[in-house]
Amino acid sequence: MTAIILIVVAVIVIAYFVMTQRSLVSLDELCKNALSQIEVQLNSRWDAVLALAKMAAQYSKHESETLVKVIEQRRGANINSPADYSEQQGALQQVMGRLIAIGEAYPELKAADLFKETQEGVKDYEEKVRIARMIYNDTATKMNRMVRQWPSSIVASMLHFDMKEYLKVDEEQKKSYPNLDEAFK
User: Fold this and answer.
1) How far apart are CA 171 and CA 176, in angstroms?
2) Which helix (DSSP H) or strand (DSSP E) does residue 90 occupy?
3) Which tens digit of pLDDT belongs to each residue from 128-155?
4) Which H helix or E strand runs over 116?
5) Rounded distance between C-alpha atoms, residue 63 and residue 56, angstroms
């Protein structure tokens, strides 16, 4: 009788361990997928910003050439962590600030239909990045709960699963980020 109880307890412990490991792997993959989705949206946003820079080239050749070079260097950058995302955001803010300044300096550029459509595209990608960020942070929350809550924390530590960093916007970025709605009116 005691042997049967021990076998049943062992089976329950092993089943729990396996189910928890599978959940942790699933959440880890979802976090990686969410970061990958952010990367895709950021690259699409860089493409839209590149189109804006090329349109601005007709008006301000030197400034636009510099922007195009910066944008081409940034496109295709890998987003493997929240720090990578923050770096991309900072670079995008700088480029957008310069594009907004060019648009302000050349009202005929700002009034052009194609320029306006491309600006709307940039705003659409910004919204997609915002949604992808929320998905990542939600998934990271679920992962972090499993890593921290007992008894799943035991399995997580045994299998070296760590907490995920959240994507944040620091206060400096919030202050320096151009208000796209206001800038492109």
Assistant:
1) 9
2) helix 82-105
3) 888 888 998 999 999 999 999 899 899 8
4) helix 113-148
5) 9
Q: Is the peptide bond before 178 cis (omega within 30 degrees of 0)?
A: no
Question: Within 10 A of 37 (CB to CB), how many other CB atoms are there?
Answer: 18
Give the C-alpha separation, 91 to 149, whole Å.
37
Distances (CA, A) of 165 to 80, 135, 168, 174: 11, 13, 9, 19
Most confident of 103-112, 130-139, 173-182: 130-139
CA 92 to CA 26: how far, in whole Å? 31
Instruction: Read off the DSSP letter of residue 108.
Output: H
> Does the model's pTM come out above 0.85?
no
Going from N- to C-terminal start, the domains of the chain cover 2-183
Token pair belonging to 70: 């910066």
CATH number of 2-183: 1.20.1440.20
Name the pLDDT band for 183 (thresholds 50, 70, 90): very low
